[in-house]
Design brief:
The chain is α/β, with parallel strands linked by helices. The chain folds into two domains: about 180 residues, no CATH class; about 240 residues, Rossmann fold. The chain contains twelve helices and 17 strands. The strands form four sheets. A seven-stranded mixed sheet has the order 11-10-9-12-15-16-17, sandwiched between helices. A six-stranded antiparallel sheet has the order 5-6-4-3-1-8. Helix 9 packs parallel to helix 10 and helix 10 packs across helix 11. It is elongated and about 75 Å long.
C-alpha cells in the first residue's frame, strides 16, 4: 500500500515541478520580450552625440541596424532570487544584485569583443527610485538600468585616465558578455546564468551553437598553473627541428575564454586551418593548436603527442614560439594563426583558467608580448594571421620594434580601433585556397597587412 502511494506521490511531485519549470520558462520569455523591446527602443532614441554608453560611431551603427539582427541574451526569472554580474574587464565582482540581466547584441556577426548593450533589471521599482539608478521605467514596474563604462574599471591601468580615450576610444564600451550568477552562488563560469534566446518575437532567431556543457565544464590540465600531473601533455617543450633542413611550423591560438565565446564555429576554425596547412605541405607534428580548454579529442587523449593543447597554457604558448625562434635553421616559415576574443588594445583573451569570469595577466596574451616573443626570430619568415578584432593593434606594437621584426608579416581583418568586420573573415578567405595555391599575395585585397613589400 505505502509503496504504491509513494510512487503516485512521486509522479505528482515530478509533474508539478515540470509544470512549474514550463511556467517559469514561459514567464521568462514574456518578461525578456518586454524588456528587449523597451531596451531596443531606448537605443533607437539615444542622442548619439550626448551619451556615455557607446562611442558616437557605435551608437549610430546600432541605431541603423535592424531589430531582427539584434541577438538577445538574458537571465531567466527565478522567484525570490537575484543575480550578480561579473565582467571580464572587472577588477572585482559588482556587489549589487538585481532581479534580472539583459543583453542586446546589435552586431552578432562580428567577433567579440564588440560593443553590446547590457542592462540590469529590477522589478517593483517606483519611478523615482528608477530615476535615481539612472534607469528607465517600463510597463510591469520594471526598471532597466543601462550599464555604462562607469560601472566597472577597465584593465588599462598602465595609462593615465586622460590618455585612455585618446589611445583607445572603444575601451569604455561594454564589449564582452558578462558572467551572471545567482546571489546564493559563487560566480563561476560553469554556472553562468546568461542564456541566448532565439524565441523573442522581432529579434534574431539564431543563437550560437555551443559545445557540449560536459566538454566546456572540464578544467584544463596545466601543470604549471595547477601544479598537477597531466597525462596527455608533455612534461617538457618539444620542438620538431630537423637536422637536415628548416621546416615550416605552425601555432594556432584560439583562446575561447568561456563556453559562450568558444562555440562550435571557433573549434571548426582551428580544425579547418589545421587541415588546410596539412594539405599545403605542413607536417602534422609541426602544427600545434592551443584551443580554449582543449577540445574533447585532446581531453580524452592518452597520447602525449596530441596536436591540441589548452589555451590556458599561456607560458607554454610563449615558450614554444620563443623556442622555435631561437634555434638556428629550425624554421623556414613560422605561421601563427590567432582567433580569440580581443580587447581594444589587441590583447587576446585565452581560457578563463580560474573560472571566475575576470581575466588577469595569465589569461590574456597582449600584442606587446607577442611582438617580444617573435622579435629577432631566426625563422626565415614569420606570418601572423590575426582573424580577430582590433588586429591593427598588433601592427602598432610591431611598429615600435621594427628593427627586431624585419622578417615578420602581419595580416589583420580590420583597423586598430575597429571591430566592425564580419566574423572569421580571414579564415573564410584562407579556406578558399583549400583546393588551390596558398599565396600570401592573394590577401592584399582582403585584409590589412604589415610589410607586404617584403613579399614582392
Amino acid at each position: 500500500m505505502f509503496p504504491v502511494l509513494y510512487f503516485i506521490l512521486t509522479i505528482l511531485i515530478s509533474y508539478s515541478l515540470s509544470q512549474n519549470e514550463d511556467i517559469n520558462e514561459k514567464d521568462s520569455v514574456i518578461a525578456i520580450t518586454r524588456w528587449s523591446l523597451a531596451a531596443y527602443e531606448w537605443i533607437i532614441n539615444l542622442n548619439c552625440s550626448d551619451q556615455s554608453y557607446f562611442t558616437e560611431e557605435t551608437c549610430l551603427l546600432a541605431k541603423e541596424n535592424n531589430q531582427t539582427n539584434y541577438r538577445v541574451y538574458g537571465s531567466e526569472l527565478v522567484p525570490g532570487q537575484k543575480y550578480g554580474v561579473v565582467f571580464p574587464e572587472s577588477e572585482s565582482k559588482y556587489k549589487h544584485f538585481h532581479d534580472g540581466v539583459l543583453v542586446l547584441d546589435p552586431f552578432p556577426e562580428t567577433s567579440f569583443g564588440h560593443p553590446i548593450a547590457a542592462f540590469y533589471v529590477d522589478i517593483n521599482f517606483n519611478t523615482s527610485k528608477c530615476d535615481s539608478m539612472k534607469g528607465f521605467f517600463i510597463e510591469g514596474n520594471a526598471c532597466l538600468q543601462p550599464i555604462s563604462r562607469n560601472y566597472f574599471n577597465m584593465n588599462m591601468r598602465n595609462y593615465r585616465p586622460k590618455m585612455r580615450s585618446a589611445i583607445c576610444p572603444n575601451c569604455g564600451e561594454v564589449i564582452f558578455l558578462p558572467l551572471v550568477y545567482l546571489q546564493n552562488e559563487h560566480p563561476i563560469q560553469n554556472n553562468d546564468r546568461l542564456h541566448c534566446f532565439s524565441t523573442i518575437p522581432g529579434f534574431n532567431k539564431a543563437c550560437p551553437q555551443l559545445r557540449p556543457k560536459s566538454e566546456t565544464d572540464r578544467i584544463p590540465c596545466d601543470p604549471i598553473l595547477t601544479n598537477r600531473n597531466c597525462r596527455f601533455f608533455e612534461t617538457h617543450l618539444q620542438h620538431q627541428c630537423s637536422t637536415v633542413m628548416a621546416c615550416d611550423q605552425a601555432i594556432l591560438i584560439s583562446g575561447g575564454w568561456n563556453r559562450q565565446f568558444s562555440d562550435i564555429s571557433t573549434l571548426n576554425n582551428v580544425r579547418n586551418i589545421r587541415r588546410l596547412l596539412l594539405l599545403h605541405g605542413y607536417v602534422e607534428e609541426n602544427i600545434v593548436t592551443y584551443y580554449a580548454n582543449g577540445p574533447e579529442e585532446a581531453q580524452n587523449s592518452e597520447e602525449v603527442t596530441s596536436p591540441y593543447r589548452s589555451a590556458s597554457m599561456k607560458s607554454r604558448i610563449r615558450n614554444q614560439i620563443r623556442t622555435l625562434c631561437d634555434i638556428d635553421q629550425c624554421t623556414d616559415t613560422l605561421f601563427i594563426y590567432m582567433n580569440s576574443p580581443t580587447r581594444p588594445d589587441g590583447a587576446s583573451l585565452l581560457w578563463d583558467s580560474f573560472n571566475n569570469g575576470v581575466y588577469d595577466d595569465a589569461e590574456i596574451y597582449t600584442a606587446k608580448e607577442l611582438m617580444r616573443d617573435v622579435a629577432y626570430c631566426k625563422s626565415n619568415r614569420v606570418v601572423i594571421m590575426a582573424d580577430q578584432n582590433y588586429g591593427e593593434a598588433l601592427v602598432a606594437a610591431a611598429e615600435a620594434k621594427l628593427l627586431a621584426l624585419e622578417n615578420v608579416i602581419i595580416f589583420t581583418a580590420n583597423e586598430y580601433f575597429n571591430w566592425n568586420t564580419t566574423k572569421d573573415r580571414i579564415t573564410k578567405q584562407l579556406m578558399k585556397a583549400e583546393n588551390g595555391d596558398l599565396c600570401l599575395q592573394d590577401f592584399k585585397n582582403v585584409c590589412k597587412s604589415q610589410m607586404l613589400e617584403k613579399l614582392s
